[in-house]
Amino acid sequence: MAEEIGLESRVLEFVQGKPILILTWTGTQPHLRSIILNSHTDVVPVFEEFWTYPPFSAHKDKDGNIYARGTQDMKSVTIQYLEAVRELKAEGLRLTHWTVELYYLFDEEIGGHTGMEILAEHPEFRALNPGITLDEGLASPSDEFNVFYAEKCVWWITVHCRGDPGHGSRFIENTAASKLNSVINSFLEFREKEKKRLQSNPRLTLGDVTTVNMTKVNGGVSCNVIPTEMSATFDLRIPPTVNLKEFEAQLEGWCRAAGDQVTWEYHQKCMNQRMTTPDNSNPWWKAFSDPCKELGLKLKPEIFPAATDSRYIRTAGFDALGFSPMNNTPILLHDHNEYLNESVFLRGIEIYKRILPSLASVPPLDGEH
């Protein structure tokens, strides 16, 4: 396909059996920074019994809705990148300045640890000195198009509580359960406060508040034995506007307040809060948003409420925007009956056909010739 379109191709393999495909459309000044179109080819599992149509059949119904796992996350965008490039090249467009690189990675859904996390720090990636990376966004149920300029920090923490054991018929003091109850209450009370803050302020989005969810509870060996140890695991997604040191102190204070023999461990603890500036002081934002405005698109800059491969790119010091041109579409990523309407998909190709030449026309930045 790359040869058919007229793109150079190469494969990087940092982990055996896990190749990263890179397609290149070279600009007129290849020494300048690159524009990265990033996508992942993996999808999450399905529960086929809950789907109306086979989840890998790409069935199109009478309304033009295409049902398949990955239609929103993110095979649609992957194809839109490729088809936009194909059509632009067929129309004879030559990139004014910048080179466009299309990246196809394989493990975003399981954390990107053997893909973009490694690639973003690799000398070959840094040698490209990316100017801007476009990556996945989310569908929008409204007429607006979300554009994500930052992502939340993901913290996964397990709190372990140890206490005195005993027979289930007695009022044992200093139990693991009483300590865990204190911890759980602290986390979930904070969760409720953040939920109410979001609900009471129409200007806030999910990306502006900290979400907390208890995802695991463990402990006990028998119905009549008070356990020596119990634990709970929490998934926290923290906006980049939060002071992480202060938040960490608050969180660990809840654990200490539960009593002695309470410990905690972080399974994931992102501390990078780098954001891409979403206004015209950033030439990449201007080059992205101007053609969108010309097309009449209503852009809504937001903080992404979860995590994508973009977090590794921003951590490496480069700008990234998350954008999936899917408005008037229910958010169904990872859900049963994930679908995208054919007309929305085809319009997305036209949108990228306007965005890519604009990005490639950004004049050389300061210090670049």
Automatic annotation (TrEMBL):
Gene3D superfamilies: 1.10.150.900, 3.30.70.360, Zn peptidases. GO terms for biological process: amino acid metabolic process. Pfam families: M20_dimer (PF07687), Peptidase_M20 (PF01546). The active site is at 42, 108 (proton acceptor). Keywords: Cytoplasm, Hydrolase, Metal-binding, Zinc. Zn(2+) 2 binds at residues 73, 109, 334. InterPro entries: Aminoacylase-1_M20A, Bact_exopeptidase_dim_dom, N-acyl_aa_amidohydrolase, Peptidase_M20, Peptidase_M20_dimer. Binds 2 Zn(2+) ions per subunit. The keyword Zinc applies. GO terms for molecular function: aminoacylase activity; metal ion binding. One of its GO terms (cellular component) is cytoplasm. SUPFAM superfamilies: Bacterial exopeptidase dimerisation domain, Zn-dependent exopeptidases. This is N-acyl-aliphatic-L-amino acid amidohydrolase. NCBIfam families: Ac-peptdase-euk. Its cofactor is Zn(2+). It comes from the Eukaryota. Belongs to the peptidase M20A family. Residues 150-260 form the Peptidase M20 dimerisation domain. Its main location: cytoplasm. It comes from Pyxicephalus adspersus (African bullfrog). It is found in: Cytoplasm. Zn(2+) 1 binds at residues 40, 73, 136. Its EC number is 3.5.1.14.
